[in-house]
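User: Hey, my collaborator sent me this sequence without any context and asked if I could get a structure. I don't really work with proteins. Can you help?
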Amino acid sequence: MRAEAHRAVRILRVVEEAEGFSTLYFRDALCRKAQPGQFIMVWPPGMEEVPMSLSTIGGESSITVKAVGPTSRRLTSLGEGDLIMIRGPFGRGFTLIGEKPLLVAGGIGVAPLKPLLERMLTRGLKPTLILGAGTRDRLIFLRRFRELLGDRLHIATDDGSLGYRGLASEYAENLLEEHNFDIIYACGPEGMMAAVYRAAERFGLPIQVSLERYMKCAVGLCGSCAIGPYRVCRDGPVFDGNMLRRVLDEFGHRRLDPSGKPIPLERG
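Assistant: No problem. I've predicted the 3D structure and written it out in structure-token form, which is a compact way to encode the shape of the chain:
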């Protein structure tokens, strides 16, 4: 079985994680061997194919979907027994280094960080997570992380409805001042990740972030996900600090739209 080939998988169950967010569970021989941070291309019948990070890796795999466009809304409308087409996993995942990791997640960006955190725990590490969202009702996997992390889970909400009032990136700077971490992993809105990257540079820490771009081929040929000299689908989606330094004119500032035109990134 080749990762590039489309194959059908049947949805085992759907879990509503928070307002507008659902996790779809399925079984697939290739996905169970994926590395945290890798993604698959998901094609619900009759809709556009879209990239999705794996939010669970193992005997059962999963994707966690935010209902924002036609394809994602179709995915969140599916139920047990429905079929979707997938291909992958693709890309470069996270690399486990260090002993005192700090993970910073914003919104749906927590999806690829969840299997990374779970793998850290199986290896005896004690990660700290900042889980950020606009409101408490949009915090994903909150119960799961409370069980896994206890007081090493920190919450940030934009409106202050739970935990720190403000951005996850702001809270990260506070924790970096108070604790001795040796690596940062981040995923979320690109403006947030850019702020976390700057904090990592200031504290002299290595960082890995997972970028999101419009993707078509997923194997580095079409160039729709280009950032500087890189293709996010092939060279990423996980970028380390050395790679980010080569694309600082784009990272956090702009991306390509489906036609290949550079457009500003939305802030947030």
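In plain terms: Residues 7-90 form a domain with the Elongation Factor Tu (Ef-tu); domain 3 fold (CATH 2.40.30.10). You can pass these tokens on to your collaborator as they are.
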